[in-house]
Write a structure and sequence with these properties.
By secondary structure, the chain is α+β, with helices and mostly antiparallel strands. It is 41% helix and 25% strand. The strands form two sheets. It has a six-stranded antiparallel β-sheet with strand order 1-7-8-4-3-5. A two-stranded antiparallel sheet has the order 2-6. It is globular.
Length: 146
């Protein structure tokens, strides 16, 4: 399970380095094989390949002509890249996603249970301000038993 957040940098060769604490969790529970994608072009999602394969298995059970399935596959493959972290925990990010999400310089890496989110730092800070956790959110989660 991936928890917490770290700030990282996109290096001069435009590579992303997964923070060491997250790298250890990934290596301990999975492997260095990952799938990087996005569902909206604003945030990169880095999945252990094993987790992404499970998502694809569930998607494959939907009818071929399901429009939502087609849109999901189209966007996740457009922004998608299967990769392997190198010995220092670095990988390239998909070019279309780097541009769309403005992933350069400082980025925020969030543990999201079974995957990571990689945000442009300024965009993430803005989102935290404009979309805060509210009392309504708390109420909905309480109704769900949390």
């Amino acid at each position: 399970m991936f928890r917490g957040q770290f700030t990282a940098k996109i290096d001069e060769k435009e590579r992303f380095k997964l923070p060491a604490a997250f790298r250890k969790s990934l290596s301990d529970d999975y492997s260095d094989d990952v799938f990087i994608t996005s569902m909206d072009g604003q945030v990169a999602l880095l999945y252990p390949l094993q987790v992404w394969n499970e998502i694809e298995e569930r998607i494959s059970r939907l009818p071929k002509m399901n429009p939502s399935k087609e849109r999901f596959l189209r966007i996740t493959n457009y922004f998608g890249l299967q990769s392997k972290l190198d010995t220092q925990g670095r990988t390239s990010l998909p070019q279309a996603l780097k541009e769309s999400a403005e992933l350069n310089g400082d980025v925020v890496v969030m543990g999201m249970q079974d995957h990571f989110e990689i945000w442009n730092k300024a965009k993430f800070e803005s989102k935290m301000t404009t979309e805060p956790f509210t009392d309504e959110d708390r109420k909905i989660l309480e109704e769900e038993g949390l």
